[in-house]
Specification:
Blueprint lengths: L12 E4 L5 H14 L17 H15 L13 E4 L15
Antiparallel strand pairs: 1-2
Helix pairs in contact: 1-2
């Protein structure tokens, strides 16, 4: 039996699990960007940071997760994804969320 711990209308985002190896981050970004539009990762966007691969991976993984109607299985990414019920947006980098 599957239990959904989220309250109706509560948000959820897919982010990188702490400690994920860099190789897996790159694999996740490449996978997502082969499936959906990753313009938000371009060097002109507010979410771009060449110094923060964890943020780039989280943004891309969340884009994919949101595009797949927030199905928990679409945030696995080989065990490197984590569902967050706290909005990970920071500064001007707003993580997408679909109700």
């Amino acid at each position: 039996m599957r239990v959904n711990a989220q309250a109706p209308g509560q948000g959820s985002w897919c982010v990188v699990k702490p400690g994920t190896p860099i190789q897996q981050l790159l694999k996740n970004i490449n996978y997502v960007c082969s499936k959906i539009n990753c313009d938000i990762l371009s060097n002109r966007s507010s979410c771009y940071s060449s110094l923060n691969l964890y943020n780039l991976a989280s943004v891309s993984m969340n884009l994919y997760y949101q595009s797949q109607e927030r199905q928990f299985s679409t945030c696995d990414f080989g065990g490197s994804g984590l569902i967050s019920v706290t909005d990970p947006s920071c500064g001007c980098c707003i993580y997408e969320f679909h109700k």
